[in-house]
Amino acid sequence: MKKLLFVLLLCPLMVMTSCRDSSGSNNKAKELLLANDIKAANDQFPMQVDYATTALSVALEGDYVVYSFEINESVVDLADLDQESFKNQLKNNFVSAYKTQPDYHMSMSLVKETEKSLRYKYKGSLSGKTIAIDFSNAELHEMFGDE
Question: How many whole angstroms separate alpha carbon 92 and alpha carbon 102?
Fold first, then answer.
């Protein structure tokens, strides 16, 4: 879905600076960057993505970076969503953004390096039904490669 690519490009998870460190504190520094950038990204939410989707937040929940969205069910029925097809569309959008958008590239590199996974969570505005599309850290490495 193009609306998700739009949200990824318009309000990237991170605007970050390079943080290279040869000591053992490198991972802690990256974790701190991730937490700070998630906080900064949340200052932009909520944001209307398109006629049916509102981006609500991004959060670090355990080993997941979680994007939360609300779907206007008077426009889109979550029950009709083919999750596997939707995941493949997201995957294609991610790879395209990773190749063409430096901020997105840096963000996903940081998520990979901190060994986090991604979760895109959608909640229906009427039913309250939720669906989650997960990308494991291994899938992120497969999609984006290991630099």
Answer: 17
**What are the CA-CA distances from residue 27 to residues 21, 31, 33, 117, 125 (Å)?**
9, 6, 10, 16, 38
pLDDT digits (tens, 9 = 90+) for 122-138: 999 999 999 999 999 99
Residue 120 forms beta bridges with which residues? 67, 133
In whole angstroms, what is the distance from residue 122 CA to residue 111 CA?
21
Residue-wise pLDDT for 56-72, tens only, equals: 999 999 999 999 999 99
Q: For helices 26-42 and 102-113, what crossing angle results, to 10°?
A: 130
CB 121 within 8 A of CB 68: yes
CA 31 to each of CA 21, 42, 107: distance values in angstroms, whole numbers, following the listed order = 13, 17, 12
